[in-house]
Design goal:
CATH superfamily: Mog1/PsbP, alpha/beta/alpha sandwich
Number of strands: 9
Strand order of the largest sheet: 3-4-5-9-8-7-6
CATH architecture: 3-Layer(aba) Sandwich
Structural class: alpha+beta
Helix content: 25-40%
CATH topology: Protein Transport Mog1p, Chain A
Order of helices and strands: HEEEEEHEEEEH
CATH class: Alpha Beta
Radius of gyration: 21 Å
Length: about 160
């Protein structure tokens, strides 16, 4: 009887530990809301966290808007004059440039207007990023992860889907 109680206690302890561990490791999903960037002189709608900070820079040849919330959501959007009216061609040029980076490791996902990729400096430092292109009128919009930061694949998928 004592042995049965000990086994039952051990089993219940294990189940409780497993439930606590599962709750602690659950993926944190970011709640996104519609964000209209027209007030920043960019006729673009994306999704972003409600608390996102938005900054605009006019770099003469292009506009740069950053949308940042915490360490896990950091978008950069570049607006410039159209270089090619075919977004697939623009995407291919961006992909070629990214693949020339010596730390480029893997193409994770490719779509007609964008892609997600992985860079790896060494066996312990991997980072994910993306590029996505939209053509509207005579303007070309290139979306990417912010230039500062390290992002997981889940974080990048969230940002990528937020601009599609």
């Amino acid at each position: 009887m004592v042995r049965a109680n000990r086994n039952l206690y051990f089993l219940l302890s294990f189940i409780l530990f497993a439930l606590c561990f599962a709750g602690c490791t659950k993926k944190q999903s970011v709640k996104l809301v519609d964000l209209d960037l027209m007030s920043y002189e960019m006729p673009i709608m994306i999704k972003a966290p409600a608390d996102a900070e938005i900054k605009k820079m006019d770099l003469i040849v292009q506009k740069d808007i950053t949308v940042k919330s915490g360490d896990g959501f950091y978008l950069q959007i570049f607006e410039s004059d159209v270089t090619n009216r075919d977004p697939k061609k623009v995407k291919e040029d961006l992909l070629k440039t990214v693949q020339e980076n010596p730390y480029f490791s893997e193409l994770v996902q490719e779509d007609p207007n964008g892609f997600i990729y992985k860079t790896q400096i060494d066996s312990t430092q991997e980072n994910y990023s993306f590029r996505y292109v939209r053509i509207q009128g005579d303007k070309e919009y290139t979306f990417q992860t912010g230039m500062i930061g390290q992002f997981t694949l889940d974080q990048v998928r969230t940002m990528y889907n937020a601009v599609k």
